[in-house]
Design goal:
CATH class of one domain: Alpha Beta
Strand order of the largest sheet: 2-1-3-4-5-8
Shape: globular
CATH superfamily of one domain: Alpha/Beta hydrolase fold, catalytic domain
Strand content: 5-15%
Largest sheet: 6 strands, parallel
CATH topology of one domain: Rossmann fold
Radius of gyration: 21 Å
Structural class: alpha/beta
């Protein structure tokens, strides 16, 4: 009887065969998703499918907290809750994680990145988030304040009770800047509009990310101005001031200018996408998100 021959593959051929058969040689970083206002995990089933289809084996977690109407709770309260789950995941990911955050969730994620020291977030993807604030009459506003128009919302938002409603935590009325600075205890701190003793530490924490991806577009219909998703906002005459002309950018209060100078910021603009479509639009995923989730 002949002795069976043992055929040994070269390492190069073995690697090629594994790639061709769809086996993932190097694992992908876990992806943490934080939902927006009136949202929950069910809205991100499509996004999860997109991610796991192109990157098989990726651990995707849509944090199931403050869903639906509970998303109206104060943002600092939500940050505390989301942070616990965030930290439990990141502690088990030595190579880091990616953070994908939609709408209001983008502000929650910014607060987490600013207040958690030594986090290991590699890429922060902000998907149509009011990063510089919100000032517009949309369906979302009418659901919260049905009898108000944008010119009068400041009377509610810039009060002690108003600051207990999430949307008021980033309501940025350009005609009442002083009232905003006096009353706002969330966005004004994140953007460094209102100096505080944690600014240096928050800046250092935020700058631990390797990549910042900003996604938004002119047909969003909710984020107002839509350029807020790219850190642009209105001046007192409601003229749009783009990101690089904002004071928080020029003063580099939380590290945005530094990220830009490092070449670690990507801006993606898509027209024809409504606000609730961002997380299920395949073109947006392929062109703005997929390449950063490696």
């Amino acid at each position: 009887m002949k002795t069976p021959q043992i055929i040994r593959e070269s390492p190069v051929l073995l690697l090629l065969r594994l790639l061709l058969t769809g086996v993932c040689v190097d694992g992908y970083r876990p992806v943490i998703i934080v939902h927006g206002l009136y949202d929950g995990p069910k809205q991100f089933k499509t996004m999860t499918l997109y991610i796991t289809k192109v990157h098989p084996g990726t651990e995707v977690t849509v944090i199931d907290l403050y869903d639906d109407l509970a998303s109206l709770k104060p943002l600092w309260t939500q940050v505390q809750g989301f942070r616990k789950t965030f930290e439990s995941i990141t502690q088990k990911a030595p190579d880091g994680v990616h953070l994908l955050c939609f709408s209001q969730g983008g502000l929650i994620c910014r607060a987490i990145l600013s207040t958690v020291p030594y986090h290991n977030v590699h890429t922060f993807i902000s998907l149509s988030s009011p990063l510089a604030g919100q000032y517009g009459e949309t369906d979302y506003l009418r659901w919260v304040f049905p009898k108000c128009i944008k010119k009068t919302v400041f009377r509610i938002c810039y009060s002690r009770m108003g600051q207990k409603i999430s949307i008021c935590d980033y309501w940025n009325d350009p005609h009442h800047r002083l009232r905003y600075l006096q009353a706002n205890s969330f966005l004004a701190l994140l953007n460094g509009d209102k100096p505080h003793h944690d600014m240096k530490a928050w800046r250092e924490n935020f700058l631990r990310i390797k990549k910042l991806v900003l996604i938004g577009g002119p047909d969003d219909g909710v984020i107002t101005p839509w350029q807020s998703s790219h850190f642009g906002f209105y001046d007192s005459n409601e003229n749009l001031v783009e990101m690089r002309n904002q004071e928080f950018y020029k003063n580099d209060t939380f590290g945005l200018k530094t990220l830009d100078a490092r070449g670690n910021m990507s801006v993606c603009i898509h027209s024809g996408v409504k606000h609730i479509q961002w997380h299920s639009n395949y073109t947006v995923f392929r062109s703005c998100i997929e390449k950063w989730l490696t």
